[in-house]
Amino acid sequence: MAGAGRTAESRVMVHDALNSEPDPTRPSSPLPVRSPAEAIACVPYLFGFVPRRSAVLLLTDEQGDLALSCRVDLPRPDDVETWTREIGDVVVRALGRRCVRNPGGRRTGDALIIAFAASRGERMVRAAVPALARVLEEKGIRVLDQLWTWGSRWRSLSCPDPICCPPGGKRIGAEAHARAAGAFPGREVVARREDLRAALQPADPLTIAEVERLLDEIPPVGEDRRDIAISQAHDLLVGATSSPVEAGREARVEAQMPSPADSAMVLAALRDTRVRDTLIWDLLRAPRGSWNVMRSVLECLVRCAPRGDVAPAATVLGILHWQCGDGTRASVALERAREDDPAYSLAELVDASIAAGMPPGEWLAGLRGLTRDACRRAG
Fold first, then answer.
1. In whole angstroms, what is the distance from residue 128 CA to residue 120 CA?
2. Which residues 6+ apart lie within 8 Å of 367 measured at CB?
3. What is the rounded radius of gyration, in angstroms, for the C-alpha atoms of the chain?
4. 229 backbone dihedrals φ, ψ, rounded to 5°
5. Which conformational region is residue 256 in: left (phi greater than 0), alpha (psi within -120 to 50 degrees), or beta?
6. 128-179 pLDDT, tens per residue?
């Protein structure tokens, strides 16, 4: 958004709740909130970081499932009109006819706008948020409330009652945070988006140098070794070397850091597009319980990959994040892929799909028309 100061994480994330057919393999997109405070507490889990100087738009479908989430920088005062128009156009384009009135005038979704800004930013919030609400209403999207949160407090901009919404705001509370954390099990939150980028930055130079040395000793994957390369990489990525870790009463699975030799083996395999595509086919059909392990291992591979070998691993990581409904981490991983290889076509394709507002499940449904053998033998 040129006029709105658009940044990489400002893009709309369409969630699978919009798909008409239920699919047990796709991540569900509930927004199980009972109060404005709980909605605010859920936002950092949706985006993976705590927004600052931001407006967040959450839109639910007729069943109350999360259909869309979007984070944008709050505008400068002279940019409000352009900012609201561009956001409204992006939202309607992403959701298509699902979020506008049908011929009978019935609405098909409800929106909640939440501004994250310090108390000194009240003037900016009061200029931008009501203007955005008006544009969304004009486009047939009912805005349930306009919230503003700062620190640990919040208030409604729509409520004129000082008793219901005191000027000093209400506390979000520990219960709201607990319910939000329970709604997104395993989803980590960092303080800033830059921290997500930092998690994918190169590891220590000695580790990268060792992986590079081992990679130089591995020949290209030939037809006679392709199936072996696929199975070896698959076993590492799904956590064949993972170990159970006690966490209170429950045991969780934690991925072990792959050795330089294992890292080189997978990175060499991912150089071959047929291995990469078959692995994606397999990984997207793996049990959901193993996806956190898969993503952890891929993060390790991205960090220890030498220049020129980052893009394949980062792209696969981005796809997994996207399919889990984590659009922010998906975008960060794809940025890392394109930093390494700006022309890496699969990263470009997935990035464009996310930017266009394609629901993750729709992309996955397109892959169902491909057989594993087709991925295995595609040139």
1. 15
2. 280, 281, 284
3. 22
4. -60, -40
5. beta
6. 999 999 999 998 889 999 999 999 999 999 998 888 889 899 999 999 999 8
